[in-house]
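Exam revision sheet. Question 4 asks you to relate a sequence to its structure. Input first:
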Amino acid sequence: MLKPYKIERFIESLILAGTSGVKPLELTNKIQTNNISKYAYDLINKKGISLHTGSVYRITNLSNAIAALKLLNYYRVKRGAVPLPDELLQEWM
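Answer key, structure tokens:
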């Protein structure tokens, strides 16, 4: 199985952070890049997933969290990993 893509780690970090979000420095450490804004831009402008950015990065609402989880699972399946369960979204419900 291939290693997770950085975009996967970015999305997963946002989902696991829930509605409280995650600080940019934490994201930088988790996905091992100094350019987290690139991944936020990709989600917002290329995938249509709405994020709050600034001092805290977070997914804005339940419908965007569902879309993010679907995208994350698409990447996971693509590289041969097991999809993550919908239960990860409990905080938004």
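Marking note for examiners. Residues 22 and 57 are 5 Å apart (CA to CA).
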